Amino acid sequence: MFETGIFYAFAAVLMFAALRVITARNPVHAALYLVLAFFTASGIWLLLRAEFLAIVLVLVYVGAVMVLFLFVVMMLDVDHERLREGFWRNLPVAVVVGGIMALEMVAVLAERYFGAATQTRVVPADYSNTRALGRVLYTQYVYAFEIAAVILLVAIIAAIALTLRRRKDTKGQDPAEQVAARREERVRLVSMPAEDR
């Protein structure tokens, strides 16, 4: 019963955070809500005893979201002084998101100390949920996995194509022009009379 309540609480927070990601006008707030959504999803996976997925989600996605956000900020040439000015304005949202994440982790970890005894599935000593995940992912869901990989590849290519632009203040080389150069155009022989000393 306790675990079911925690699951529904996490699901509600996850739905709220996902909704705020697409409705927040400030990109900093949207990124913080996305971090909250990923952190809440990892808490749900901890409840489902999928520790590997939970750890990977926190390490890869939560870290990658911040790196991606910084990458976008650098590619768009955002004025860093204006970005620093909004730090205190974004602090309340950051505190709320951090507090919710801390409460979620306390709720997950408090089950073994304060929660009622729940029926747990008995697994062998050599059971690995990572091995079971790999077996299911690469056999039963292999086509979905490959389609997701192709979609991510297309998204990466589209992001590079959208941010790639030529700047007037940068100098570049034209390899075709360099290869097409001839010696007669580059070198001029000048005959000079010899001097006797």
Q: What do you see in this structure?
A:
The protein is 72% helix and 0% strand. The protein has helices spanning 2-23, 27-47, 51-75, 80-85, 87-114, 129-137, 142-163, 175-179, 183-186. Helix 1 packs antiparallel against helix 2 (27-47) and helix 2 runs antiparallel to helix 3. The chain has 197 residues and is mainly α. It folds into two domains: 1-121, no CATH class; 124-153, no CATH class.
What's the topology here?
Elements: H1 2-23, H2 27-47, H3 51-75, H4 80-85, H5 87-114, H6 129-137, H7 142-163, H8 175-179, H9 183-186
Helix pairs in contact: 1-2, 1-5, 2-3, 2-5
Output the keywords.
2 domains, 72% helix, 0% strand
Short description:
The protein is mainly α. The protein is 72% helix and 0% strand. The mean pLDDT is 79.
Structural class: mainly alpha
Q: What's the shape?
A: elongated
What distance lies between the first and last C-alpha atoms, to the nearest angstrom? 108 Å
Radius of gyration: 28 Å
The biggest sheet amounts to: none
- The percent of residues in helical segments reads over 70%
Mean pLDDT level: 79
Percentage beta strand:
under 5%
Our count of domains comes out at: 2
> What's the helix count?
9
Q: What is the count of β-strands?
A: 0
> Which regions have little confidence, pLDDT < 50, spanning 5+ residues?
none
Order of helices and strands: HHHHHHHHH
